[in-house]
Write a structure and sequence with these properties.
The chain has one helix and 13 strands, in the order H-E-E-E-E-E-E-E-E-E-E-E-E-E. It is mostly beta strands and 191 residues long. It has one domain. The longest helix has 17 residues.
Length: 191
């Protein structure tokens, strides 16, 4: 009898481990991201993975520096494959391990599409004849709500207009020296 109960318990345990993990809402309405450090779009009944892309920080110069310059993140491709319909209350989710404020490591940027790339200008400064102060551009603030253990909901503080966007994870950097690349989770907003 004991061996039959033990067999039943082991079979139940292995059966639950063999089921694939999904990123859908549970019966209580909570969303649970499958992977740590990955940003997901928070749909009403599930989570949708955002496109993962690599972005390098590069200097941008105008007129060999006389017209000013700055720094920008450059991503390959003019458009993200992940598309989201414009709405007032867009939400995103991320699971982080440990006690960490997501706004310290996850940054949302509006990306300017070019012919073969997308760019997020991080800073710009006037040139020799334009003494304007350095400006930070393209960054979008997010409000944060905690949802369950280590899960955070990121809510853009302003409505996202149609265009290209990306969450940069500062904890996921590769390379070194002048060739540092960061992981971006990109998406586009459509009408």
């Amino acid at each position: 009898m004991k061996s039959a109960i033990l067999f039943f318990l082991l079979a139940a345990a292995f059966g639950s481990l063999a089921q694939p993990q999904t990123s859908t809402a549970s019966s209580s309405g909570a969303h649970d991201p499958t992977y740590i450090n990955q940003v997901y779009f928070w749909a009403p009944d599930s989570l949708m993975s955002l496109e993962k892309a690599s972005g390098e920080m590069k200097p941008k110069m105008k007129a060999m520096g006389f017209g000013g310059g700055g720094m920008a993140y450059i991503l390959d491709g003019a458009r993200s494959a992940t598309r989201i319909k414009a709405a007032d209350n867009l939400r995103f989710a991320i699971k982080l391990s440990g006690m960490m404020d997501p706004t310290m490591v996850i940054k949302l940027y509006q990306l300017d599409p070019k012919k073969k790339s997308r760019e997020a200008t991080v800073s710009s400064q006037g040139g020799m004849f334009n003494k304007s102060a350095a400006k930070t551009k393209n960054g979008i603030d997010c409000n944060v709500q905690k949802s369950g253990t280590d899960v955070y909901i990121l809510i853009p503080a302003t409505r996202l207009t149609p265009g290209e966007y990306g969450f940069m994870n500062m904890m996921q950097a590769t390379g070194g020296g002048a060739q540092v690349a960061y992981t971006f989770f990109t998406f586009g907003i459509d009408q």
